[in-house]
Design goal:
Radius of gyration: 18 Å
Distance between the termini: 31 Å
InterPro entries: TMTC_O-mannosyltransferase, TPR-like_helical_dom_sf, TPR_rpt, UCP035836
GO molecular function, one term: mannosyltransferase activity
CATH topology of one domain: Serine Threonine Protein Phosphatase 5, Tetratricopeptide repeat
CATH architecture of one domain: Alpha Horseshoe
Organism: Bradyrhizobium uaiense
Keywords: Signal, TPR repeat
Number of strands: 0
Shape: globular
Pfam families: TPR_16 (PF13432)
Structural class: mainly alpha
């Protein structure tokens, strides 16, 4: 029941938000994506609510503690407090001007909260042309896709791939971009390239299953979505896949698919 509750919570908030998704953990289903473009201190409490308490107290004691601010923001996002994360991280960037890791976390929070243009602008300040970060470039691409600026988004993905060739998280986001413009064969080709990587994870498999299903190959899509999952999770994922495929807006259901952000090492 707990896994199903987590699934429901995550699916309710799934959306093509810039960067793809956030957090300190969570179910690996067709949902918001876990991961971060900013570092976080270790060890971190496993429970996001406990993490919010721990890092919130640490941040309030010392607003100049950048690591605490980033971890607090991640925990707030994971517990659904996205507006609060934006407000806190905005203040933290004022207190710590020019800190690029903090700007990256703030941009990520804005993306989570649906503020795509603001997220793009903030993320542009989180790295520089002479020292670009492929993770941030990929996240900026997802914000541009959310703004329906797909050609621009793909230029950002291309730049990210020049820095990190064959990176599956970037390829997956590029595949979703093609899905949004109904270029389904190209989307499938790109997502299969991402899925072939040893670093590919469940989120990429779910995105591939969606684009295969959107082309009418439902049995193949279900086989992909169920692979290597426990029976209850497989059933939940298949049900969600069928729900999206039955929607009348066709490939625009990609707006509920999962952008992928590379996890920190």
């Amino acid at each position: 029941m707990r896994r199903q509750s987590n699934l429901t919570r995550h699916l309710a908030s799934a959306a093509l938000v810039a960067v793809l998704a956030a957090g300190l953990g969570g179910c690996q289903t067709m949902s918001d994506v876990t991961g971060s473009i900013a570092s976080r201190p270790d060890p971190a409490p496993d429970d996001p609510r406990r993490a919010a308490e721990v890092y919130g107290e640490r941040y309030r004691k010392n607003p100049k503690d950048v690591e605490a601010a980033i971890a607090y923001g991640q925990a707030l996002r994971m517990t659904g407090q996205r507006s609060q994360a934006c407000a806190m991280l905005e203040q933290a960037t004022i207190t710590n001007p020019g800190n690029k890791a903090l700007l990256a976390a703030y941009g990520r929070a804005l993306a989570d909260n649906g503020n795509s243009q603001a997220a793009f602008d903030v993320l542009s300040r989180a790295h520089s042309p002479d020292n670009p970060d492929w993770r941030i470039l990929s996240v900026q691409g997802t914000t541009l896709d959310k703004l329906n600026r797909h050609d621009e988004a793909r230029r950002y993905y291309a730049s990210a791939l020049r820095l990190a060739p064959d990176e599956p998280s970037v390829l997956s986001n590029l595949g979703l971009s093609y899905m949004l413009t109904k270029e389904l064969p190209k989307a499938e080709e790109t997502l299969r390239q991402a899925y072939a990587s040893a670093r590919a994870d469940t989120r990429i498999r779910q995105n591939l299953a969606l684009v295969v299903g959107l082309q009418g190959r439902f049995a193949e899509a279900e086989t992909i979505v169920k692979a290597d999952l426990p029976a209850d999770e497989a059933a939940a994922n298949v049900a969600y896949l069928r729900d999206m495929l039955n929607r009348k807006d066709g490939p625009r259901t990609a707006s509920r698919a999962a952008p992928v952000v590379a996890k920190d090492d």
